[in-house]
Amino acid sequence: MKTEVEPKGGPALQSQQPSQLMLERLRRLTSFREFMIMAIVIAGCLAMWITTPIFMTFGNWSALLLQVSIECIVAIGMTILLVAGGFDLSVGSTFAFAGAMTAMTMSSGLPPWAALLVGLAAGAVIGFCNGFIIAKIGINPFVTTLAMMSMVRGMLLVITRGRNISGLPESFRMIGQGNVHGVQNPIWIALLMVLVGDILLRKSRFFRQNYYLGGNERAAMLSGIRIDRLKIFNYSLTGLLAAFAGIIMTARLGAASVTAGTGLELKVISAVIIGGASLKGGEGTILGSFLGSLLMGILVGALTILGVDVYWNTFVIGATLLLAVLIDTFGRSRRKLQ
Amino acid sequence: MSGEHILELRGITKDFPGVRAVNKVDLDLRRGEVHAVVGENGAGKSTLMNILGGVLQPDSGDLFLDSRPIRFVDVADAGRNGIAVVFQELSLVPSLSVAENIYFNRQPTDRIGFVASRKLHKATRQLLSLFKLQVSPARAVAELSMAHRQIIEVLKAISLRPRILILDEPTSSLSATEIDRLFDNISRLKSEGVSFIYISHHLPEIFRIADRVTVLRDGKIAGTFGIGEVDEESLVKRMVGRELTNMYGKRISQIGETYFQVERSGGETKTPLCLALHKGEILGIAGLIGSGRSELAMEIVGITPNRQCNILLNNEQFRFRYPAESIEQGVVYLTENRKELGLYLAMSVQDNCVAPTLRRYTNRLGFISDRQIGSAALDARHRFNIATPSVRKLVGQLSGGNQQKVLLAMWTGARPKVLIVDEPTRGVDVGAKSEIYRMLRDLAASGIGIIMISSELQEVLGMSDRILVMRNHQFVAEFNREEATEEKAILAATGLAERAKKLSGQEL
């Protein structure tokens, strides 16, 4: 678990020479996945800044981060799932479903805070169902969440009759459209959640159990981790976070769309994997996933500014994912040889 | 037809890290004979068979087939030379049908290259009739009993029309009539000139079917005999006859009162069983692989919970539903399967060391202190003499012995009251072995009762204060340290019960 490697140099190194220690610290710092992505992000931004100064304007970044922030919130849950050796394809549907539930209950007269709770509850219930089926019945995450993805999207179409819901109250829309110090609310919310989530997954005992679960599920069970409960919690949390992101999106647009979040699951999983998580489990951090989302956002933003046909976006996202995984695989086999 | 011997082994040697599994073995196989190979667990039988079957390559020594030197590159190569092996671990694909399994990868095809099902099923039915097996060739192997799977495995080997057939414990799950059919088939094939190498723990079987018998001990040949020249007792003596070295050390603990009891009123096999452990005692559980020792341990700690398995610890009644509960009470189990069930190979030594005890490094807010984990791991590295440059090294990169020490460190860190160790020195070299023995002695000296499950009899005899022998999910004999011998233990474990009764002090 490279996430726990303290850059300050651990007790194991205390006997070494100071210069060696510095080198070792540097080597360890650069071996961070986060470090690598950060370097790529900064290098990319610098290059863009020089070639097209408009890239570094407040307006551009604001738009870029706003897009990234919604994905980031979903990515928090997805990171925890991937660390624990699972994943969830139904987040895109949950995202749209929760937004629509909130919008519909609000239209029928419920106060915004209550409608928000209804949407969140819907997401948590969907997540709980995923977790229960996977942990207790033992159907694999791929099939379970694939089915759930379809079922939830179907339910959404049934209850909305396929129509978008608009005309939402001002107080609700402010969640997504308001700003603090000129920065939109969703960005603040996402940054705060990423920060808290990263600390929790790194440092709290409860969340850290996920690295053991993903590292070796059976050994985790033997080590006294209640793996079924933990899995159910993880999926419920992911459902809750996807719902929250969906509600914020609804507030931002001032309307719930039945096609919202289509393809979101793949975008989020890509970002999480680019950020250092592995589908095999046991690896990944929320900071990494945030940087992964950011990298993808920047890439798409840069392409737009450079005037590349928008149809290339999807291709580039796929290519980036493949490239990230290839680099990681080569790095791994090299490490193994040492 | 040249020469009396179809297969000759000369000076075959095979090393594994830290162990010489097979040491300068000479063996002859005559045409049309059944040649039994016996020996304790770990004597080198399986390694030798893997060499003959082309799974492993010998480090030195020569193989002669029909007096011509030969080397098998892989299993297919051995097969082309007429050698078929039925391994102990079954190699069938459960989701495929009986016919597909038997003719795996060499199904009869029609002109276009499609599988000719009718031909395939007809050939399969013919084979099945050899064992009078009423099973449809189209049935999936997953639906068959273990006994039937074992027969399918034998049929698969027979269908290759081998000149030499190697059988490794072929009867471990067969009933008496099925064994009779197997022996009928062996006799028939023998008369057709097929030669057999037959490995078994069940000595009576060997006297029924074998022409000659070779005893392996510690990777070396301890003698080859015509079946008429020996009896069971002398074979057992040859199998174990060795002086115990002092690597096990001496007991340094005071044995206290009984504080841990297990009472199983009936598990899957409906056999009641009970067990009592004293403070500071090392209780050895001997038995063959598959006798139910690990299963019992897993029931005790709640890995495979059993409602009928009651535990009395310090006069308190428990029934553990999952390991989290048993760990909390200080009853811990060190698995025999450290790679799959025990360790987190892709995680660091320090993360492994604290896996069951994370709570201890957590403050009131639920946050973990990595500094404390680091120093605990350094302490464990020192105490258990784990050879690793850094506690941040991945456990998967350590040697088997050091991995086992990490497992020991991990679980003794949980401050156990009862420690159940399963094959604590499997795949561990001699040096690490004696260190692990010393650690177990130290733990017992601190007042912990240790239950040691082991297939290595010398280990059980060398370490235990008391020995229970398990067979068919039951304890069939109990010995004190003084009265136990390998011979008695083997006799009890292999089911020569009457004789065991005569020799054993008490019967359970």
A few lines on this structure:
The complex is a heterodimer of chains A (338) and B (508). Chain A has helices at residues 18-30, 33-51, 58-83, 91-107, 112-137, 141-160, 170-177, 185-203, 205-215, 217-222, 227-253, 264-274, 286-305, 312-337; strands at 179-180, 183-184.
Structure in words:
The complex is a heterodimer of chains A (338) and B (508). With 338 residues, chain A is an all-alpha fold. Helices cover 74% and strands 1% of the residues of chain A. Chain A has a single domain, classed as ABC transporter involved in vitamin B12 uptake, BtuC, CATH 1.10.3470. Chain A is built from 14 helices and two strands, in the order H-H-H-H-H-H-H-E-E-H-H-H-H-H-H-H. In chain A, strands 1-2 form a two-stranded antiparallel sheet. Chain B is α/β, with parallel strands linked by helices and 508 residues long. Chain B folds into two domains: 5-240, P-loop containing nucleotide triphosphate hydrolases (Rossmann fold, 3-Layer(aba) Sandwich); 246-503, Rossmann fold (3-Layer(aba) Sandwich). In chain B, strands 6-7-8-3-9-10 form a six-stranded mixed sheet, with helices on both faces. Chains A and B meet through helix 9 and helix 10 of A and helix 10, helix 11 and helix 13 of B.
Please indicate the percent range of residues of chain A in DSSP E strands (runs of 2 or more): under 5%
For the record, give the distance between the C-alpha atoms at the N and C termini of chain A, rounded to a whole number.
Answer: 18 Å
Question: Major beta sheet of chain A, specifics?
Answer: 2 strands, antiparallel
How are the strands of the largest sheet of chain A arranged? Answer: 1-2
What low-confidence regions of chain B span 5 or more consecutive residues with pLDDT below 50? none
Question: What is the H level of CATH, i.e. the homologous superfamily of the largest domain in chain B?
Answer: P-loop containing nucleotide triphosphate hydrolases
What's the overall geometry of chain B? globular
